[in-house]
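Hi V.,

You were right to ask for the full record rather than a summary. Here it is.
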Amino acid sequence: MITIKTPQHIAIIPDGNRRCAKRLMKTPWKGHEWGLGKLKSVLEWCKEFGIKIITVYALSLENLKKRPKREIEMLFSLARKEINDIISNEKNPVRKNKARLMFFGNLELLPEDLQKLIKKATEITKNNSEFFINLAIAYGGRQELVSASKEIAEKVMEGYIKPDEINENFFRQNLQTNGFPDPDLIIRTGGEKRLSNFLLFQGAYAELVFIDSYWPELTREEFVKIIQDFGKRERRFGR
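Predicted structure:
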């Protein structure tokens, strides 16, 4: 394990799969396939640094609704294949590294068979504690905040809590990521410099890194440099 000051929790916006594939004259879903392979590599790199929690923006709510239907179907097919492998293969990187796999987002929008696979993979890995992998699927940060606000309003109406008792911690408990600390570091590949509706509440004080490399092209050297740079930063948390 590499010993420098490292983040406990990193969140990743793995941008550039489609553009990488297009540049190489391949189909968009080929880029997503490469992207999945890169995620497995990143899990190994995180293990080297002792990073325990990884949250990945796997599919935004906007992309689910706006991307071509065939591309979404191919993404779902890729997800089915990988989740089935996690369920059945103890040598899959998730199982091999004793990672707990969890999902959040509007999962009810996914095909029913995929929802069932997600539940099974979650159940199979629920006792693992070496690593924690959170996959945000059909997720939107604004939508998460609206949903949390509605849940809190209902609790107020039911008399569970008074309005003046609502604080940041109580609000946090109603978010989909409840139970995990906020990310220390958010990494976005692909050259874009925005959060794109990802972890808007949780990422308030995260350190941000934007790199030009497409996600499938991210190298171990680039990842090491990102973590080393994080170790040099002074985190102020609004102070």
